[in-house]
Amino acid sequence: MSKKEIDWSNIGFGYVQTDKRYVSNYKDGKWDEGGLTEEANVVLNECAGVLQYAQTVFEGLKAYRTEDGHIVTFRPDLNASRMADSARRLEMPVFPEDRFIKAVEQVVAANADYVPPYGSGATLYIRPYMFGTNPVIGVKPADEYQFRVFATPVGPYFKGGAKPITIRVCDFDRAAPHGTGHIKAGLNYAMSLHAIVDAHQQGYDENMYLDSATRTKVEETGGANFIFITKDNKLVTPKSDTILPSITRRSLVYVAKEYLGMEVEEREVLFEEVKEFAECGLCGTAAVISPVGKVVDHGKEICFPSGMEEMGPVTKKLYDTLTGIQMGHIKAPESWIKVIK
Hints:
Shape: globular
Catalytic activity: L-leucine + 2-oxoglutarate = 4-methyl-2-oxopentanoate + L-glutamate; L-isoleucine + 2-oxoglutarate = (S)-3-methyl-2-oxopentanoate + L-glutamate; L-valine + 2-oxoglutarate = 3-methyl-2-oxobutanoate + L-glutamate
EC number: 2.6.1.42
Cofactor: pyridoxal 5'-phosphate
Family: Belongs to the class-IV pyridoxal-phosphate-dependent aminotransferase family.
Radius of gyration: 20 Å
Pfam families: Aminotran_4 (PF01063)
Number of helices: 6
Number of domains: 2
């Protein structure tokens, strides 16, 4: 698709091939210098480690135009750090964090024409990822790896505004204690596919996973962290070693404390508490916050006072403040906004 053919007001949330992507290879114990390429296809041996044993990690972040015309990204240093943690857990070599940020900058700058205009609601989604490339038939880490970054323009996650969704308490487990729930590995998402397809077939938008050890505590959805608002306007977010540390959630916690003067509790959240909250939301890169209107626990409905028509008032204030920081309307904390051009 040509840049000129993109209808920014109607673009969906899917893949559009852009001009350039970044590639670096790891061999003989070191990363090469890497660089941009026009080649979008990846050629691998049939026995590559990623194909046999799912040795792959990834990240997701966005670039967008601010009102004053700059192209920026949001907290890429945290993505770099999280990918490093993910790589270590899967016995993969860490791609240097400073090089990660520079690779993101290069890809965004090289695809600047694909960064949607300010006010369109669309953004440039950036996907850094890494995988084992050499043949591996015995169960062991690969010896060679490839790090890549591509970008694709995407439309707003919710067209026409964010309407509250209905989620169900899931009978499947997302992550085991001492497992890989805290890292962004492809294998975590593969195991969630059956659960989300089943949820959709049953008429639900998402799954609420409980902790696999006791099935009494709220964890996450598999693609987003939970936030709850109490009836006295506190922000509560689940804390667990098996939850992916969402950059959006961490940012919302800071915004709640420092910008809105809210009390924040990061702690274990018992499922029994959910019915007492005033508002509920899912937070992540794609939608920032997806409001939740209803949780269904095996036929028993928990309906939040914020309702099914619109985002709750406190959640909306959090959403507006964070997106205002991202778009340049509100002064950002130091180092949160990385200006590309």
